[in-house]
Amino acid sequence: MARLPRFIVIILALVFISSVQAQTSKSTSPNKTNTVSNTTVFTTSNSIEAYFGPKATDDKTSVFYHLLRFFDSAKVSLYGSAHEIDMIAVAEKLIERADSGVDVQIVVESRRLTLPKNSASLNLLKYSKVKLIADNKKFGLMHNKFFIAD
Are 93 and 71 in contact (CB under 8 A)? Predict the structure, then answer.
């Protein structure tokens, strides 16, 4: 008797996966994927972009370069989540956007807020209009890295 429900679950899972793959192949056909060295950019018709890969910060195909340009695109709000903010240039750009009237709020891993390596950028943010929110998880890491503008 226990084998029959397990078999049904497996069949349903396979049907679901096939359905998702079919929908994905249909919905991603107008999307564009570009690969430039180690950076992969996925662009959809809804202006969602994802960047991957290590690059030099001054490389115009780097994640860092596009992150700062994305921050510049925010006119009303810039909300995000980051494991830590350890780059002064990122902190300065967030402050610049907040000073220009953009509502900037960032959730940060609470244990990373007190690390010495993050103190320079976090001290800048602490005395700015940027709202830093410590995650309140008691277990595990908050290891997200994403931003949403406007």
Answer: yes
CA-closest candidate to residue 97, choices 127, 120, 72, 124: 72
pLDDT in tens, 27-74: 443 444 444 444 555 455 566 777 776 777 788 888 888 899 999 999
- Regarding whether 54 and 90 lie in a shared domain, the answer is no
SS3 136: coil
What gap in Å lies between CA 140 and CA 101, rounded to an integer?
34
> In which region does residue 101 sit, left (phi positive, over 0), alpha (psi from -120 to 50) or beta (all else)?
left
Question: Of 18, 44, 73, which residue constitutes the final position of a domain?
Answer: 73
- Supply the pTM of this predicted model: 0.67
